[in-house]
Amino acid sequence: QVQLVESGGGLVQPGGSLRLSCAASGSIFSIYAMGWYRQAPGQERELVAAITTGGPTNYADSVKGRFTISRDNAKNTVYLQMNSLKPEDTAVYYCNAKLRVLASTPIRDYWGQGTQVTVSS
């Protein structure tokens, strides 16, 4: 079984910062990419940022220049540093990992349980 455990959400004032962490554990053969998605009430889940094992990153236009994704491959952990937070960043943030549990199995998506980020004064 694979588990993704997130931490670091909370309440922050506009302009503030938060750092999210997500650690993958369990029966993992190889991780190909990890990332963060978010879902606000009444809206679809959207990609925030992603990073591959080799290092290339991808960001949503709305967070470019404010958020930074990084990864510790040895710890199977991904981080999201969020600066200059805005009220519109309020959402549940979900960790995602694209991985194989065995060499012979296909790459699948795994999800964390979600962590609430609220930006409000």
Query: What is the string of helix and strand elements?
Result: EEEEEEEEEEE
> What is the helix fraction of residues, given as a range?
under 10%
How many strands?
11
Radius of gyration: 14 Å
Largest sheet: 7 strands, mixed
| Structure annotation, total helices | 0
The structure class reads mainly beta
Q: What is the terminal-to-terminal distance?
A: 40 Å
**Basic shape:** elongated
The whole-number mean of residue pLDDT values reads: 96
Low-pLDDT residue intervals, each spanning 5 or more residues: none
Strand content: over 45%
Brief descriptors of the model:
121 residues; 0% helix; mainly beta; four-stranded antiparallel β-sheet
3D architecture notes:
The protein is mainly beta. Helices cover 0% and strands 57% of the residues. It has no helices and 11 strands. It has strands at 2-7, 10-12, 18-26, 30-39, 46-52, 57-59, 67-72, 77-82, 91-100, 108-111, 115-119. The strands form 2 sheets. Strands 2, 4, 5, 6, 9, 10 and 11 form a 7-stranded mixed beta sheet that branches.
